[in-house]
Amino acid sequence: MDIGSTIRAIRKRKNITIAQICEETGLSQGFMSQVETNKTSPSIATLEHIAQALNVPLAYLLLKKEDRMHIVRKNERSTTTSGSEYLKVEHLSSTKNVRMMLVEFPPGASTGDTPHAHEGEEVHLVIKGSIYAEQGEDGAEFEEGDSFSWNACTPHVVRNIGKETAIVLISLYTESDSGRDLI
Q1: What number of CA atoms fall less than 13 Å from residue 12's CA on the CB side?
Q2: Predicted confidence (pLDDT) per residue in 93-138, tens digit
Q3: Which sign does the torsion angle of CA 6, 10, 15, 17 carry?
Q4: Domain locations in the chain?
Q5: pTM of the entire structure?
Q6: CA nearest neighbour of 129 among 102, 103, 157, 168
Q7: Which CATH superfamily is domain 3-67 in?
Q8: C-alpha–C-alpha distance, residues 146 and 165, integer Å
Q9: What range(s) does the HTH cro/C1-type domain occupy (predicted)?
Q10: pLDDT value at position 95?
């Protein structure tokens, strides 16, 4: 864990000197220097004082880099195709267990000829167009602004029933990161 570098980066970004941190926390400058260079590991109580002086939550100091905010700019999104209809899938962002994507369904296109099932839970928001979604014995038509969700372990299919391209925002939760290629 690289807490010292995190503390230093926050301190510098906020234009706070080591002396100011020490004045507020009662810690010595030598100790703070050792903390920032990861030569010593402060106690949780000491970290809490440092976090207060930096005006950040203690939990933020304890996060690993991979658990912090991950940014994907619009022009940096990866795009893939999915299914026999070659649906365009824009991958928006993800965590270890959650993925968000925009899926474009050309008129008449669907997620497949037959319903399919996979690990996870899905939440859908129709951004544009008209779709029909079916899961097991349940089925409904959805228009722009409508949303629905389901456990993806039950066979399901989504189909564009409109005359224009439909765009659906899908958020997929899986227990593991093995659900990378699923819609």
Answers
A1: 7
A2: 988 899 999 999 999 999 988 898 999 999 999 999 999 999 999 9
A3: negative
A4: 3-67, 74-173
A5: 0.73
A6: 168
A7: lambda repressor-like DNA-binding domains (1.10.260.40)
A8: 16
A9: 7-61
A10: 87
